[in-house]
Design goal:
alpha/beta, Dihydrofolate Reductase, subunit A, 5 helices, DHFR-like_dom_sf, RibDG_C, Dihydrofolate reductase, 5-amino-6-(5-phosphoribosylamino)uracil reductase activity
Length: 220
């Protein structure tokens, strides 16, 4: 996995954070992150573009994703993403199946999910506290998709890196990556943007302390 460049202001320098939480998100240029993988992934709200990422997949982009998961030792998932993964990955082969089936899976849900997938457990009702405990228990925790969960993590600033794959389309409808969870936040680009021949761009950001500064460009 690509490592973050040390910086004295990065949130991962906090003493209480034993590990890191990485948000892995695919989005359009208008930052829609709903249902990139397939038509039935999340049709809520009448979303009609499920599977929008598939035509834009490229071998180079697949290698980027695979590299991003090296070193992962736990998954943190929302209920919908967990159910999709639990129905699929236990029956597959390959590096992603091997990784996902082996590591602990932590599920954020207000209901009672079926946790038959080996290594799965449900987080407690105090989600921020439960997520901090997960981060202290592991070195690298990946949050995949799970846009509702992501809103909580953004609002609480409970993440250390944001890996955003932007794709060269706009949809004008659908759930956004930055929705109700967005709060004033400073981020730092960890690596130069990495583009694929299909036009998708990987942006890796690290969380910084503080809130955005303001100024006046009309003076001086």
């Amino acid at each position: 996995m690509l490592s973050a460049v040390p910086h004295p202001d990065t949130a991962d320098t906090r003493e209480h954070a034993m590990g890191q939480i990485h948000l892995e998100l695919f989005a359009t240029l208008d930052l829609v992150g709903q249902a990139p993988g397939g038509p039935d992934e999340d049709p809520s709200g009448g979303f009609g573009f499920g599977g929008w990422q598939a035509p834009l997949m490229h071998e180079e982009g697949g290698a980027q994703v695979q590299a991003s998961y090296r070193g992962t030792d736990a998954l943190l998932l929302g209920r919908r993403t967990y159910d999709i993964f639990a129905a699929y990955w236990p029956h597959e082969d390959g590096p992603f199946a091997e990784l996902f089936n082996a590591v602990p899976k932590y599920v954020a849900s207000r209901g009672t999910p079926d946790l038959a997938w080996a290594g799965s457990s449900q987080l407690g009702p105090d989600l921020p506290t439960a997520v901090r405990e997960v981060r202290d228990r592991h070195e690298v925790v990946k949050v995949v998709g799970s846009l509702d969960l992501v809103q909580t993590l953004l609002r609480e600033k409970l993440f250390d890196e944001l890996h955003l794959w932007l794709h060269p389309i706009t949809l004008g409808t659908g759930k956004k990556v930055f929705a109700d969870g967005a709060v004033p936040t400073n981020l730092r680009l960890l690596d130069p943007p990495a583009a694929t021949p299909a036009g998708s761009v990987l942006l890796r950001y690290g969380l910084l302390e503080g809130t955005p500064a303001t100024g006046d460009m009309t003076t001086g």
